[in-house]
Amino acid sequence: MKKTFISIGLAAVGAAGIQSIDAQTSVQPTGTPTMDTGISPKTWNVAANLRGFYDDNYAVAHNKTGSFGIELTPSISANVAMQQTDVGAKYTFGMYYYQQRQDSGIDALDYTHQGDLWLDHSFNERQKLTIADSLVIGQDPQLVQGGAVIRVNGDNLNNTATVTLNSEWTRLFSTATHYGNTLVDYNNSAASATNSPSYAALLNRIQQDVGIDFQWAFQPETIGFIGYDFTWLDYTGNAQIAAPFPVGPGKFVNYYSDSRNYYTHYAYLGLTKTFSPNLSGSFRVGASLTDLYNDPVSKENTVSPYANINVTYTYLPGCYVQLGFTQNQNVTDISAVGSNGQLTQYQESSSVYLDLNHQITSKLSGSLVGSYQHSTFQDGQYNNISENTVSAGIHFDYRINRHFSANAGYDFSELLSTVNQRGNSRNVVYLGLGANY
Length: 437
Hints:
Blueprint: E1 44-55, E2 67-72, E3 75-81, E4 85-98, H1 99-103, E5 109-122, E6 127-138, H2 141-144, E7 156-168, E8 173-185, H3 199-203, E9 205-219, E10 222-235, E11 240-248, E12 251-256, E13 262-276, E14 279-291, E15 301-316, E16 319-330, E17 346-359, E18 364-378, E19 386-399, E20 404-417, E21 424-436
Antiparallel strand pairs: 1-2, 1-3, 1-21, 2-4, 3-4, 4-5, 5-6, 6-7, 7-8, 8-9, 9-10, 10-13, 11-12, 13-14, 14-15, 15-16, 16-17, 17-18, 18-19, 19-20, 20-21
């Protein structure tokens, strides 16, 4: 691996969360995202999952190619709890074998790596620092989430890092200050034609996000807040991403990776409330102002709505349903230039999602997830043209004993797009065994 863990930890740039990093996934909430560490109460944990699957579009491409396969994902983790500090780490390795690729005489194996680090430290009873970093290297866009809509060969990297300081100044007033950093690096950085730029040219980037929330505890169950975030997105591909546009005899406008750099300011109001022991919600609404300061044709400012709303209802022990809505902007791998010379900059996206988890018996649990995203291109050839993403999945886990389990599931996703050869659909079904110690 050329880039394995070149940026794990906060010494390298990672990512933060006010914007989505993938036009085909749900937009992430503003501020500091939470990470699923998967850590048990033990100091250390070793686990593995072995699955057989059928994927009818493993390249996630417009023209489907299906394959039976085998997936092996072992992991090892450690968590140390001290008097004022909790620190942990986890590493997950993925190996995916595709029978169709073996039959076609090409490399049948994909490998993925994921590393997570986190630290919680309480300076005192009023101030707490949280640091988290997650690095993923892989090929599948649903894992890497770098902005591509198809599978991209190579060791594609996405690193996410966040730092949050929570300070309680009085019994009623507190602040949450956060910084985040995203690094996306696609491996296919070779020179490419301007009418077909590489994903590295289009999507390699560093995104930085800094902000603060001012919070008031109106009641023990009700916290209101007002917040501000600043995001700076810097594309680092250093290559042409569109054909030169003629503006006069012998004169052309050239478009490079950093032509899509921008600043975004977010202002919002919010409320988190526990309505009952079983029902809680978080509501964040506001607006964003984006400055396309490096666009070679139109250095315009755009104002857009922003929202992040979710409600969670726990209807039985171990059983809950969560419903959410987000409105934000996200990067896109489309860079086509319009007739006015404007470059495609990003997408505005509205998303709704559902997550239902149910404990069917003491040993059998199931989950149902689904999402719908409506996205509209900003500027360029497809300005105001929309595309939609639908995904759904159903999953079951049966606990055989404290160390072994069986799992099965089905996942569906589809990108509905009028852009030529861009739309795709995918069905994956799997059956597996898990071990945990």
